[in-house]
Amino acid sequence: MESSADITCRPARGQDLQAVAWIFMAAFAGSVEHARAGDAAKQGMQDLFRLALTAEPGALIVAVCSKQVVGYILASRNVSRLRWSALWRGQWLRILWRWLTGRYRIGWRTLRTIAADKLAFLRGAHQCSRHQARILSVAVHPDYQGKGVGRKLLEAGLRYLRNKGVRAVRLEVRPDNAVARHLYEKAGFRPCGEYADSQGRWLIMVLDQDIGS
Q1: What is the pTM of this model?
Q2: CA quadruple 15, 63, 59, 90: dihedral sign
Q3: Are 109 and 50 in contact (CB under 8 A)?
Q4: What is the layout of strands, in order, in the sheet containing 200-208?
Q5: Element (H, E) at 27
Q6: Is the separation of the CB atoms in 169 and 161 below 8 Å?
Q7: Is residue 74 part of a domain?
Q8: Cα gap 20→23, rounded to integer Å
Q9: pLDDT, tens digit, for every residue of 114-127?
Q10: 71 within a domain of the structure (yes/no)
């Protein structure tokens, strides 16, 4: 039986992205089902994680146990810069082309849901706006939840941001996700605001000054 001592964290590599996308799909199955994306969205998520990996190397960190990727965290030091870097490199255009040519098999109804939630996310960015660094996503393989993997990933993500000179970071969490909220509160995050998307409310939490210390 593995324990947290068996888990190590390292920067993600290209060959990790398929496992990262699967973990996202498994950990956020309710959101995937809500968007009616299904398993066809896995390729789309893999491409989005590749976009992040290319635009900001080091921001995507994976947890590994016995050479198997069991979790990930995406911690960007500047989300606006991440988006512009992806646009400049043409990555968004490649993703758009793959959708238009049917590679993702995502219909208009699903796309409208995703777009509406993205707009809500952008509107929420106006709150606590000085916190440009952002933990965009954290997920753990279902078989490894409750083993301290999330804590190790959060520590690794905050360490990455601190080494980049970041002193203010934010994230979003569902208010009823008691486990995640407890993890973030123990790390020093505090509520800053909230917004809502098609699935309900998001609580904005922020961490200032000596993150992770």
Answers
A1: 0.80
A2: positive
A3: no
A4: 8-11, 60-65, 68-76, 133-140, 168-173, 200-208, 190-197
A5: helix 17-27
A6: yes
A7: yes
A8: 5
A9: 555 555 455 556 56
A10: yes
Is 213 part of a structural domain of the chain?
A: no
- For the stretch 64-92, pLDDT in tens is 999 999 999 999 998 777 665 655 555 55
Note whether residue 175 is domain-resident: yes
Q: What is the CATH number of the domain that holds 101?
A: 3.40.630.30
**Structural domain containing residue 133:** 6-208
Residue with tokens 């990262």: 20
Alpha-carbon distances, residue 183 vs 22, 111, 144, 177 (angstroms): 23, 32, 16, 10
Consecutive H or E run containing 172? strand 168-173
30 token code pair: 């309710």
Are 128 and 205 in contact, with CB atoms under 8 Å apart?
no
- Total of domains in the chain: 1
The runs of H, that is alpha helices, within 28-177 are 29-34, 41-55, 79-88, 91-100, 108-124, 149-163
